[in-house]
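Target chain:
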Amino acid sequence: MRVLFAGTPSVAVPSLDALVAAGFDVVAVLTRPDAPVGRKRILTPSPVAARAAELGIDIIHASRVDAAVTERIAEARPDVAAIVAYGGLVPRAALDVPQHGWINLHFSLLPAWRGAAPVQRAVIAGDDVTGAVTFQLEEGLDTGPVIGTLTEAVGPEDTSGALLERLSHSGAVLLAQTLSAVESGAASPRPQQGDVTLAPKLTIDDGRIDWSEPALSVGRRARGVTPEPGAWTTLDGQRLKLEPVRLRPDVTDIQPGQVALAGKGVLVGTGSHAVELTKVQPAGKKMMAAADWARGQASLESVVFQ
């Protein structure tokens, strides 16, 4: 079966590899254009583009699927299109090109967490279980009928990055199995059922820690925004980036935002009990152990995060 693969970030690469390994004829890859990376803003291919080049697959670079891109997709004559975190909408004209439509691998248990940041939102919300589905892509936002499903437990220390890494590999297997079912005629899409929740793209503001919230919520937010956009707070008007924190339910006498030492640990008060900082990154400096940062403060008693 001839497959067009659409994807951009590193989490989509395992799916591309899985389809190639399963023997599908990946006739072209659709991915977003090269983007500036790093302080020197060097134009760099997307992870999917880089992998496609290694595999010798034709690449269609496009930030949006317009008429010209739709024509190039049609020229590749795909029987089906597989899409994993491409980063753009697919209009009706392009959806109609492959005989078997477009199959989307999405990292949530739809209809929960429709949108661009399903794993991050699931961690922030404190979900115990998440997963991935394959579904028939429609013009609506993640509204199509589901074909395949897998579940994944969310561990108490899981960051969104760690969880997404696991799902990218298990989801790749699911996607290959789904395309095999589509090819054989065994796929049976079923309408989504359950409560709808939305997962809009995270912004920098989503990473700001509100120390008046309970410690559990603080910990979930810090893990949910790691590695991107990252957790942060402010001190003396300057942004201080934070790695995920540890819960310290044994300490309940520190005011929200107040920083204190407890043995070798650097603690911060919240709306319930304290949390322990792991690593921090002051403005203009590298990430460092919280204890090293604390030693550089004149007096921790005067340090209050905002």
Remarks:
- The mean pLDDT is 95.
- Residues 68 and 251 are 61 Å apart (CA to CA).
